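ugh ok fine here u go
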Amino acid sequence: MNNITKLKLIYFFKSLFFFSPILTLFYFSRGLDTFQVVALEAILIIAVLFSEVPTGIIADKIGRKLSLSLLILLYIIGNIWTIFAFSYFEFIIIEIIFGIGIAFGSGAVEALVYDTLKFEKKEKLMSKIWGSINSYSLIASVIAVIIGGYIARSHEPKTFVILLWLFTFGAIISFIISLFIKEKKHQKEIKEVSPLILFKESTAHILKNKSLRKIIYLSLFTLPFTHVIMFLFQPYFLDAGVPNAIWGVAMAGGTLLGALLMKYAYKIEEKIGMKKTIFLTTIFPGLLYLAMSFIIGPVMSFIWYILLMGISNLRNPLFSQYQNDHIESHNRATVLSVISMIVSFYLAIMRLVLGKIANENLILSFIVMGGIIVLGAIFFRIDERHIKVSV
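structure:
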Protein backbone atom coordinates (compact mmCIF):
# COMPACT_ATOMS: atom_id res chain seq x y z
CA MET A 1 0.00 0.00 0.00
CA ASN A 2 1.58 3.30 -1.07
CA ASN A 3 1.47 6.66 0.72
CA ILE A 4 -1.37 8.03 -1.35
CA THR A 5 -3.63 5.07 -0.52
CA LYS A 6 -2.72 5.32 3.17
CA LEU A 7 -3.50 9.04 3.17
CA LYS A 8 -6.88 8.39 1.58
CA LEU A 9 -7.70 5.95 4.41
CA ILE A 10 -6.35 8.38 7.03
CA TYR A 11 -8.49 11.20 5.65
CA PHE A 12 -11.51 8.90 5.56
CA PHE A 13 -11.31 7.74 9.17
CA LYS A 14 -10.35 11.12 10.63
CA SER A 15 -13.28 12.77 8.84
CA LEU A 16 -16.12 10.72 10.31
CA PHE A 17 -17.70 13.85 11.78
CA PHE A 18 -20.83 12.21 13.17
CA PHE A 19 -21.38 15.25 15.39
CA SER A 20 -21.45 17.89 12.62
CA PRO A 21 -25.26 18.16 12.29
CA ILE A 22 -25.66 18.95 15.99
CA LEU A 23 -22.38 20.56 17.11
CA THR A 24 -23.90 23.98 17.80
CA LEU A 25 -26.77 22.32 19.66
CA PHE A 26 -24.22 20.36 21.71
CA TYR A 27 -22.58 23.63 22.74
CA PHE A 28 -25.99 25.13 23.51
CA SER A 29 -26.70 22.12 25.74
CA ARG A 30 -23.51 22.95 27.67
CA GLY A 31 -24.68 26.54 28.28
CA LEU A 32 -22.99 28.48 25.45
CA ASP A 33 -24.67 31.15 23.30
CA THR A 34 -24.20 31.84 19.57
CA PHE A 35 -21.42 34.40 20.02
CA GLN A 36 -19.50 32.10 22.38
CA VAL A 37 -19.78 29.23 19.89
CA VAL A 38 -18.46 31.25 16.96
CA ALA A 39 -15.86 32.87 19.24
CA LEU A 40 -14.52 29.37 19.94
CA GLU A 41 -13.77 29.14 16.23
CA ALA A 42 -11.90 32.45 16.44
CA ILE A 43 -9.87 31.07 19.35
CA LEU A 44 -9.17 27.97 17.27
CA ILE A 45 -7.85 30.13 14.44
CA ILE A 46 -5.71 32.23 16.80
CA ALA A 47 -4.17 29.00 18.10
CA VAL A 48 -3.50 27.93 14.51
CA LEU A 49 -2.03 31.37 13.78
CA PHE A 50 0.57 31.16 16.54
CA SER A 51 1.34 27.51 15.85
CA GLU A 52 1.65 27.61 12.06
CA VAL A 53 5.30 28.57 11.62
CA PRO A 54 6.74 26.46 14.49
CA THR A 55 4.85 23.37 13.32
CA GLY A 56 5.79 24.03 9.69
CA ILE A 57 9.46 24.22 10.65
CA ILE A 58 9.12 20.98 12.63
CA ALA A 59 7.60 19.34 9.55
CA ASP A 60 10.47 20.50 7.32
CA LYS A 61 13.27 19.78 9.78
CA ILE A 62 12.03 16.62 11.53
CA GLY A 63 9.36 15.10 9.32
CA ARG A 64 5.92 15.50 7.77
CA LYS A 65 4.92 12.01 8.92
CA LEU A 66 5.41 13.05 12.57
CA SER A 67 3.31 16.16 11.98
CA LEU A 68 0.48 14.09 10.51
CA SER A 69 0.47 11.72 13.49
CA LEU A 70 0.51 14.63 15.96
CA LEU A 71 -2.42 16.24 14.13
CA ILE A 72 -4.57 13.16 14.64
CA LEU A 73 -3.37 12.52 18.20
CA LEU A 74 -4.32 16.06 19.28
CA TYR A 75 -7.72 15.59 17.63
CA ILE A 76 -8.26 12.49 19.76
CA ILE A 77 -7.19 14.22 22.99
CA GLY A 78 -9.31 17.29 22.29
CA ASN A 79 -12.38 15.28 21.37
CA ILE A 80 -12.29 13.09 24.47
CA TRP A 81 -11.93 16.20 26.66
CA THR A 82 -14.91 17.78 24.82
CA ILE A 83 -17.10 14.88 25.89
CA PHE A 84 -16.43 15.61 29.56
CA ALA A 85 -16.21 19.44 29.39
CA PHE A 86 -18.94 21.70 30.79
CA SER A 87 -17.27 25.09 31.30
CA TYR A 88 -16.51 27.68 28.64
CA PHE A 89 -12.92 27.89 29.87
CA GLU A 90 -12.47 24.16 29.18
CA PHE A 91 -13.81 24.58 25.67
CA ILE A 92 -11.32 27.41 25.08
CA ILE A 93 -8.40 25.16 26.09
CA ILE A 94 -9.77 22.37 23.90
CA GLU A 95 -9.94 24.71 20.90
CA ILE A 96 -6.30 25.65 21.48
CA ILE A 97 -5.40 21.94 21.38
CA PHE A 98 -7.36 21.51 18.16
CA GLY A 99 -5.67 24.61 16.73
CA ILE A 100 -2.18 23.27 17.39
CA GLY A 101 -3.23 19.98 15.81
CA ILE A 102 -4.56 21.70 12.70
CA ALA A 103 -1.33 23.68 12.42
CA PHE A 104 0.69 20.46 12.47
CA GLY A 105 -1.23 19.22 9.44
CA SER A 106 -1.91 22.43 7.50
CA GLY A 107 1.29 22.50 5.47
CA ALA A 108 2.85 19.16 6.28
CA VAL A 109 0.28 16.84 4.69
CA GLU A 110 0.07 18.87 1.49
CA ALA A 111 3.87 19.00 1.34
CA LEU A 112 4.06 15.25 1.93
CA VAL A 113 1.70 14.56 -0.98
CA TYR A 114 3.36 17.01 -3.39
CA ASP A 115 6.87 15.74 -2.67
CA THR A 116 5.72 12.12 -2.98
CA LEU A 117 4.44 12.99 -6.45
CA LYS A 118 7.52 15.04 -7.28
CA PHE A 119 9.74 12.09 -6.38
CA GLU A 120 7.78 10.10 -8.98
CA LYS A 121 7.87 13.05 -11.45
CA LYS A 122 4.09 13.35 -11.25
CA GLU A 123 3.81 16.71 -9.49
CA LYS A 124 1.50 18.08 -12.21
CA LEU A 125 -1.08 15.58 -10.95
CA MET A 126 -1.27 17.39 -7.59
CA SER A 127 -4.73 18.89 -8.14
CA LYS A 128 -6.05 15.47 -9.22
CA ILE A 129 -4.45 13.49 -6.36
CA TRP A 130 -5.12 16.11 -3.68
CA GLY A 131 -8.72 16.31 -4.83
CA SER A 132 -9.00 12.53 -4.69
CA ILE A 133 -7.54 12.35 -1.17
CA ASN A 134 -9.87 15.08 0.07
CA SER A 135 -12.83 13.42 -1.62
CA TYR A 136 -12.31 10.46 0.73
CA SER A 137 -12.65 12.91 3.59
CA LEU A 138 -15.90 14.23 2.17
CA ILE A 139 -17.28 10.75 1.48
CA ALA A 140 -16.62 9.89 5.13
CA SER A 141 -18.47 13.05 6.13
CA VAL A 142 -21.45 12.05 3.97
CA ILE A 143 -21.72 8.71 5.74
CA ALA A 144 -21.13 10.24 9.17
CA VAL A 145 -23.61 13.12 8.98
CA ILE A 146 -26.43 10.86 7.75
CA ILE A 147 -25.81 8.45 10.63
CA GLY A 148 -25.20 11.29 13.08
CA GLY A 149 -28.30 13.20 12.03
CA TYR A 150 -30.41 10.08 12.48
CA ILE A 151 -28.95 9.08 15.87
CA ALA A 152 -29.39 12.62 17.24
CA ARG A 153 -32.76 13.31 15.58
CA SER A 154 -34.37 13.74 19.01
CA HIS A 155 -31.77 16.40 19.90
CA GLU A 156 -31.27 14.73 23.28
CA PRO A 157 -27.88 15.75 24.81
CA LYS A 158 -26.95 12.12 25.51
CA THR A 159 -27.10 11.36 21.78
CA PHE A 160 -24.61 14.18 21.11
CA VAL A 161 -22.07 12.41 23.33
CA ILE A 162 -22.52 9.14 21.42
CA LEU A 163 -21.60 10.92 18.20
CA LEU A 164 -18.44 12.39 19.75
CA TRP A 165 -17.33 8.90 20.82
CA LEU A 166 -17.96 7.51 17.34
CA PHE A 167 -15.70 10.18 15.84
CA THR A 168 -13.00 9.37 18.41
CA PHE A 169 -12.92 5.70 17.40
CA GLY A 170 -12.47 6.66 13.74
CA ALA A 171 -9.65 9.06 14.64
CA ILE A 172 -7.84 6.29 16.55
CA ILE A 173 -7.92 4.08 13.42
CA SER A 174 -6.59 7.01 11.40
CA PHE A 175 -3.74 7.54 13.90
CA ILE A 176 -2.69 3.88 13.66
CA ILE A 177 -2.54 4.07 9.84
CA SER A 178 -0.47 7.28 10.02
CA LEU A 179 2.32 5.39 11.78
CA PHE A 180 2.90 3.38 8.60
CA ILE A 181 3.42 6.36 6.27
CA LYS A 182 6.82 6.32 4.53
CA GLU A 183 8.36 9.75 4.06
CA LYS A 184 10.56 10.56 1.08
CA LYS A 185 13.76 12.50 1.70
CA HIS A 186 13.15 16.18 1.03
CA GLN A 187 15.93 17.88 2.97
CA LYS A 188 18.34 20.15 1.15
CA GLU A 189 20.85 20.60 3.98
CA ILE A 190 17.79 21.64 5.93
CA LYS A 191 18.96 20.23 9.24
CA GLU A 192 21.88 22.67 9.19
CA VAL A 193 19.55 25.64 8.62
CA SER A 194 18.24 27.38 11.74
CA PRO A 195 14.47 27.71 12.21
CA LEU A 196 14.77 31.51 12.02
CA ILE A 197 16.55 31.36 8.66
CA LEU A 198 14.01 28.84 7.39
CA PHE A 199 11.19 31.18 8.38
CA LYS A 200 12.90 34.22 6.81
CA GLU A 201 13.57 32.34 3.56
CA SER A 202 9.96 31.18 3.39
CA THR A 203 8.58 34.66 4.03
CA ALA A 204 10.96 36.20 1.50
CA HIS A 205 9.87 33.67 -1.09
CA ILE A 206 6.25 34.82 -0.75
CA LEU A 207 7.18 38.52 -0.82
CA LYS A 208 9.33 38.16 -3.95
CA ASN A 209 6.94 35.98 -5.93
CA LYS A 210 4.23 38.27 -7.35
CA SER A 211 2.21 35.47 -8.91
CA LEU A 212 2.16 33.46 -5.69
CA ARG A 213 1.03 36.57 -3.79
CA LYS A 214 -1.81 37.16 -6.26
CA ILE A 215 -2.94 33.55 -5.81
CA ILE A 216 -2.84 34.01 -2.03
CA TYR A 217 -4.88 37.23 -2.21
CA LEU A 218 -7.58 35.54 -4.26
CA SER A 219 -7.65 32.49 -2.00
CA LEU A 220 -7.80 34.65 1.13
CA PHE A 221 -10.55 37.07 0.16
CA THR A 222 -12.81 34.42 -1.36
CA LEU A 223 -12.63 31.97 1.53
CA PRO A 224 -16.14 30.49 1.80
CA PHE A 225 -16.29 30.62 5.63
CA THR A 226 -17.17 26.93 5.81
CA HIS A 227 -16.28 26.68 9.50
CA VAL A 228 -18.54 29.64 10.30
CA ILE A 229 -21.51 28.23 8.40
CA MET A 230 -20.94 24.88 10.13
CA PHE A 231 -22.14 26.57 13.33
CA LEU A 232 -24.64 29.01 11.84
CA PHE A 233 -26.56 26.65 9.57
CA GLN A 234 -28.30 25.01 12.53
CA PRO A 235 -30.01 28.16 13.88
CA TYR A 236 -30.55 29.18 10.22
CA PHE A 237 -32.37 25.91 9.52
CA LEU A 238 -34.46 26.42 12.66
CA ASP A 239 -35.53 29.86 11.41
CA ALA A 240 -36.16 28.54 7.89
CA GLY A 241 -38.31 25.68 9.14
CA VAL A 242 -36.14 22.87 7.77
CA PRO A 243 -37.23 19.66 9.55
CA ASN A 244 -34.76 18.33 12.15
CA ALA A 245 -34.74 14.87 10.60
CA ILE A 246 -33.18 16.05 7.34
CA TRP A 247 -30.38 18.26 8.70
CA GLY A 248 -28.00 15.35 8.32
CA VAL A 249 -29.31 14.75 4.79
CA ALA A 250 -28.52 18.37 3.90
CA MET A 251 -24.97 18.02 5.18
CA ALA A 252 -24.58 14.71 3.40
CA GLY A 253 -25.86 16.15 0.13
CA GLY A 254 -23.50 19.11 0.30
CA THR A 255 -20.57 16.93 1.28
CA LEU A 256 -21.26 14.39 -1.47
CA LEU A 257 -21.47 17.16 -4.06
CA GLY A 258 -18.22 18.57 -2.70
CA ALA A 259 -16.52 15.18 -2.91
CA LEU A 260 -17.48 14.81 -6.56
CA LEU A 261 -16.40 18.35 -7.45
CA MET A 262 -13.07 17.99 -5.64
CA LYS A 263 -12.34 14.66 -7.28
CA TYR A 264 -13.02 16.00 -10.76
CA ALA A 265 -11.89 19.61 -10.31
CA TYR A 266 -8.98 19.03 -12.69
CA LYS A 267 -11.38 17.76 -15.37
CA ILE A 268 -13.59 20.84 -15.01
CA GLU A 269 -10.50 22.99 -15.40
CA GLU A 270 -9.45 21.04 -18.50
CA LYS A 271 -12.94 21.43 -19.98
CA ILE A 272 -13.63 25.16 -19.53
CA GLY A 273 -10.14 26.50 -18.84
CA MET A 274 -8.28 27.67 -15.77
CA LYS A 275 -9.49 31.31 -15.84
CA LYS A 276 -13.22 30.53 -15.99
CA THR A 277 -12.96 27.65 -13.53
CA ILE A 278 -11.25 29.62 -10.79
CA PHE A 279 -13.54 32.64 -11.25
CA LEU A 280 -16.73 30.58 -11.02
CA THR A 281 -15.30 28.55 -8.15
CA THR A 282 -14.51 31.63 -6.09
CA ILE A 283 -17.60 33.77 -6.80
CA PHE A 284 -20.37 31.15 -6.51
CA PRO A 285 -20.17 30.65 -2.72
CA GLY A 286 -20.63 34.41 -2.28
CA LEU A 287 -23.69 34.42 -4.54
CA LEU A 288 -25.14 31.48 -2.61
CA TYR A 289 -24.71 33.27 0.73
CA LEU A 290 -26.69 36.17 -0.74
CA ALA A 291 -29.35 33.76 -1.99
CA MET A 292 -29.59 32.24 1.49
CA SER A 293 -30.13 35.74 2.87
CA PHE A 294 -32.99 36.79 0.61
CA ILE A 295 -34.77 33.57 -0.39
CA ILE A 296 -35.53 31.67 2.81
CA GLY A 297 -37.78 28.66 3.32
CA PRO A 298 -37.72 24.92 4.11
CA VAL A 299 -37.03 23.89 0.52
CA MET A 300 -34.85 26.70 -0.86
CA SER A 301 -32.73 27.04 2.30
CA PHE A 302 -32.13 23.28 2.14
CA ILE A 303 -31.05 23.54 -1.53
CA TRP A 304 -28.87 26.66 -1.03
CA TYR A 305 -26.99 24.97 1.79
CA ILE A 306 -26.24 21.84 -0.26
CA LEU A 307 -24.97 23.91 -3.19
CA LEU A 308 -22.88 26.14 -0.92
CA MET A 309 -21.14 23.27 0.85
CA GLY A 310 -20.56 21.42 -2.40
CA ILE A 311 -19.17 24.28 -4.48
CA SER A 312 -17.04 25.59 -1.58
CA ASN A 313 -14.91 22.45 -1.77
CA LEU A 314 -14.14 22.74 -5.50
CA ARG A 315 -11.45 25.38 -4.92
CA ASN A 316 -9.22 23.29 -2.63
CA PRO A 317 -7.31 21.08 -5.11
CA LEU A 318 -7.00 23.96 -7.59
CA PHE A 319 -5.39 26.38 -5.15
CA SER A 320 -3.21 23.56 -3.82
CA GLN A 321 -1.81 22.98 -7.32
CA TYR A 322 -1.30 26.68 -8.05
CA GLN A 323 0.49 27.39 -4.78
CA ASN A 324 2.71 24.32 -4.71
CA ASP A 325 3.93 24.94 -8.24
CA HIS A 326 5.60 28.10 -6.92
CA ILE A 327 7.30 26.50 -3.88
CA GLU A 328 10.54 24.54 -3.52
CA SER A 329 10.57 21.16 -1.81
CA HIS A 330 13.06 21.80 1.00
CA ASN A 331 10.90 24.39 2.78
CA ARG A 332 7.52 23.59 1.30
CA ALA A 333 5.78 22.92 4.64
CA THR A 334 7.14 26.17 6.13
CA VAL A 335 6.02 28.28 3.17
CA LEU A 336 2.57 26.67 3.25
CA SER A 337 2.44 27.29 7.00
CA VAL A 338 3.30 30.97 6.52
CA ILE A 339 0.47 31.20 3.99
CA SER A 340 -1.84 29.42 6.42
CA MET A 341 -0.74 31.84 9.16
CA ILE A 342 -1.86 34.77 6.99
CA VAL A 343 -5.19 33.04 6.39
CA SER A 344 -5.56 32.28 10.09
CA PHE A 345 -5.03 35.92 11.05
CA TYR A 346 -7.75 37.00 8.62
CA LEU A 347 -10.16 34.30 9.77
CA ALA A 348 -9.58 35.01 13.46
CA ILE A 349 -10.74 38.58 12.95
CA MET A 350 -13.60 37.68 10.63
CA ARG A 351 -14.99 34.97 12.87
CA LEU A 352 -15.23 37.35 15.81
CA VAL A 353 -16.86 39.97 13.61
CA LEU A 354 -19.26 37.48 12.02
CA GLY A 355 -20.03 35.89 15.38
CA LYS A 356 -20.99 39.28 16.83
CA ILE A 357 -23.13 40.10 13.80
CA ALA A 358 -24.82 36.68 13.87
CA ASN A 359 -25.62 37.03 17.55
CA GLU A 360 -27.55 40.20 16.71
CA ASN A 361 -28.83 39.40 13.21
CA LEU A 362 -28.18 35.98 11.65
CA ILE A 363 -29.23 36.95 8.12
CA LEU A 364 -27.02 40.05 8.11
CA SER A 365 -23.99 37.83 8.77
CA PHE A 366 -24.83 35.86 5.61
CA ILE A 367 -25.05 39.09 3.60
CA VAL A 368 -21.65 40.21 4.89
CA MET A 369 -20.01 36.88 4.03
CA GLY A 370 -21.54 36.86 0.56
CA GLY A 371 -20.52 40.44 -0.16
CA ILE A 372 -16.89 39.90 0.85
CA ILE A 373 -16.55 36.79 -1.31
CA VAL A 374 -18.12 38.34 -4.41
CA LEU A 375 -15.92 41.44 -4.17
CA GLY A 376 -12.83 39.28 -3.59
CA ALA A 377 -13.56 37.14 -6.66
CA ILE A 378 -13.95 40.24 -8.83
CA PHE A 379 -10.98 42.30 -7.61
CA PHE A 380 -8.36 39.53 -7.25
CA ARG A 381 -8.92 37.50 -10.41
CA ILE A 382 -6.03 35.36 -11.71
CA ASP A 383 -5.34 33.68 -15.04
CA GLU A 384 -2.76 31.46 -16.75
CA ARG A 385 -0.04 34.10 -16.34
CA HIS A 386 0.06 33.39 -12.61
CA ILE A 387 0.71 29.66 -13.07
CA LYS A 388 4.23 28.39 -13.62
CA VAL A 389 6.15 25.14 -14.06
CA SER A 390 6.83 23.52 -10.69
CA VAL A 391 10.20 24.14 -9.06
